[in-house]
Amino acid sequence: MRWLRPLAMTAAVTTLCASIAACSTSPTGRSQLLLLPDSQLNEMGQQAFAQYQRDIPTADQASHRYVQCITEAIIDVLPDDQRNQDWQIRVFRADQPNAFALPGGYMGVNTGMLDIATDQNQLASVIGHEIGHVLARHANERASTQSATSLGLSVISSASGMQTPAGQQLMGVLGMGAEYGIALPFSRRHESEADAIGLQLMAEAGFDPRESVTLWENMQAASSGGEPPAWMSTHPSQGQRIQGLQANMDQAMATYEQARAQGRAPNCQRS
Predict the structure, then answer these.
(1) Beta strands of 63-221 (E only): which ranges?
(2) What residues does the Peptidase M48 domain cover (predicted)?
(3) Mean pLDDT of 8-17
(4) pLDDT, tens digit, for every residue of 146-158?
(5) Residue 107 reports pLDDT greater than 90
(6) What domain range includes position 149?
(7) 204 a catalytic residue
(8) Taking the model in full, what pTM does it have?
C-alpha cells in the first residue's frame, strides 16, 4: 500500500478538516481525520477476528489465561466508557513475534511474542501498545486518510455492506484483506503514538514501564545478524522505539509508583 508523503498527507487532512466535520483528537492531542462510523469499523473488526480464529490455531489454555490476566489488569484502569466495550484477546500458535489490534477491541498475540516478552511486564507493554491503537482509533484514521486520498470519498459514502466492492476496498485499506493483512503495521506515527499510550497504561495498571525497553532490547537481540521481519518494514526501528519510550519514562515511572502505592500489583504467571 502506497502512502502519501507526510507534507502531502498533512495538507490533504487539513483541507478535508476545513471542508467537512471530520476531525477529532487522539489521546495524545494529535489532530485526526476520522470519516468512518465506528460501528462499521467495529463490525469489520469482529468479522476479521472471527475469520482469523477459524483459520489460525490457538494456543493452550495456560497461555490464554496468562495473556488475559495482563489484558484485564490494563483494561481495569481505563475510563468506564472505554473499559466497558467488548475487549477480546486471543493467543495464536505462530512463531512470528507479533501482535495485532482491530477496531472494536479485538486483539491477538502470537506465541512467538511470548518467547520474546519474557515476563508479565514486557508482555504488558505489547498489550498496552495494542490497546493504544484501539483507543486512538488508528484503524479509522488509516482507512479515512487512505479512502479520502486514494479511493475517493465516494467509497465511504457507498460502503454500506461488507460484500460490496466498496466494502471490500475498505477491508483492504484496513489491512484486513487476503493473507491475514490484519497483522500489517500501522504507520510509524501510529506506532510511536501507541507506544506512548501503552507505556502510560501499563504503568497505571502497576506493570513496570522500564521493562518496555527490555522488550525492545530482546527484539533487537532476536533479529541480530539478519534482516528485520517484514511486518516491521514500516515501523520505527527498535532503536527509535527505545528512544521514544525513554523520552516518556519519567512520567511513566511517576505513574507506576503511584499505582503501586495504591495497591496495583498484578501477578500474572505463565504456568
Answers:
(1) 88-92, 99-102, 106-110
(2) 64-247
(3) 48
(4) 766 554 444 444 4
(5) yes
(6) 37-261
(7) no
(8) 0.79
DSSP state of 58: B
DSSP state at residue 150:
I
Beta 31-33 vs 99-102: how paired, if at all?
unpaired
Q: Which of 101, 104, 173, 178 is nearest to 143 (CA)?
A: 173
Q: Which residue has the cell 528485520?
A: 228
Domain contains 31: no
C-alpha cell read off for 241: 522505539
Q: Exactly one of 130, 141, 191, 193 is catalytic; name it.
A: 130
Bridge pairing between strands 99-102 and 106-110: antiparallel
- Is residue 13 in some structural domain? no
Closest by CA to 215, choosing from 228, 192, 199, is 199
Q: How many domains does the chain have?
A: 1
Q: Which three cell numbers stand for residue 252?
A: 511513566
Q: What is the pLDDT of residue 148?
A: 64
What cell numbers appear for 161 in the block? 455492506
| Listed residue (56, 89, 59) closest to 179, CA to CA | 56
Summarize the confidence of residues 40-54 as an average pLDDT. Answer: 89
Q: Do 60 and 39 meet the contact criterion of CB atoms below 8 Å apart?
A: no
